[in-house]
């Protein structure tokens, strides 16, 4: 379901994406609405599922997880039982940040963070418990762009 928003809703979303620690009063002041109107708008956006969650992003280097790895997985078992086992395995590994079922040559793409190569080896040993057919890993050498902020220009605006 697509939701329609106005300029003020977009401004609220942009501010919260940049800094979720802003208080309602700070957001209201920057957007130019009352605190109660801002709170109602934020609640509406949460109820509609536009705001999924509010989190604090940590610096992975500062928490001793400097190495990001993308793991490409292929399976020869395309059944519900295997998929459920795979889901259980990846959900049980805290270093796994994201998992996607893919189209094309690979079946799944995993993004994980580890301390070092021995940390990757421990991750690998956990992942293969899912009975994988083929695993290939690529390590991030340099992060050229990293953001959690979605572009808001695709949101449909209400016409007044």
Report on this model:
With 160 residues, the protein is an alpha+beta fold. It folds into 2 domains: 4-56, Arc Repressor Mutant, subunit A, CATH 1.10.10.10; 67-139, Lrp/AsnC effector binding domain/regulation of amino acid metabolism (RAM) domain (Alpha-Beta Plaits, 2-Layer Sandwich). The protein has 5 helices and 6 strands, in the order E-H-H-H-E-H-E-E-H-E-E. A 4-stranded antiparallel sheet has the order 3-4-2-5. Strands 1-6 form a two-stranded parallel sheet. Helix 2 (24-31) crosses helix 3. The longest helix is centred in the N-terminal third of the chain and has 13 residues, at 35-47. The radius of gyration is 20 Å and the shape is elongated. The model has no long low-confidence stretch (mean pLDDT 95).
Query: Rg, please?
Result: 20 Å
Poorly predicted spans: none
Number of structurally distinct domains: 2
Specify the helix fraction band: 25-40%
- The total strand number stands at 6
Major β-sheet strand ordering: 3-4-2-5
General form? elongated
The H-and-E topology, N to C, reads as EHHHEHEEHEE
Specify the structural class. Answer: alpha+beta
Distance between the termini: 20 Å
Any idea of the CATH class of the largest domain? Alpha Beta
Major sheet attributes: 4 strands, antiparallel
Q: Residue-averaged pLDDT, rounded? A: 95
In the CATH scheme, what's the topology name of the largest domain? Alpha-Beta Plaits
Please tally the helical runs, counting DSSP H or I stretches of 4 or more residues.
5
Provide the CATH architecture of the largest domain.
Answer: 2-Layer Sandwich
């Amino acid at each position: 379901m697509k939701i329609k928003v106005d300029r003020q809703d977009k401004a609220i979303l942009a501010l919260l994406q940049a800094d979720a620690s802003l208080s309602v009063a700070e957001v209201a002041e920057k957007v130019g609405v009352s605190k109660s109107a801002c709170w109602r708008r934020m609640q509406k956006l949460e109820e509609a599922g536009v705001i999924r969650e509010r989190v604090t992003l940590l610096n992975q280097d500062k928490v001793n997880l400097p190495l990001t790895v993308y793991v490409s997985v292929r399976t020869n078992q395309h059944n519900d039982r295997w998929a459920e086992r795979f889901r259980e395995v990846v959900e049980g590994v805290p270093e796994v940040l994201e998992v996607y079922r893919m189209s094309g040559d690979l079946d799944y793409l995993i993004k994980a963070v580890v301390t070092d190569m021995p940390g990757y080896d421990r991750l690998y040993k956990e992942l293969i418990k899912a009975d994988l057919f083929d695993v290939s890993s690529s390590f991030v050498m340099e992060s050229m762009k990293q953001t959690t902020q979605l572009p808001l220009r695709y949101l449909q605006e209400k016409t007044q």
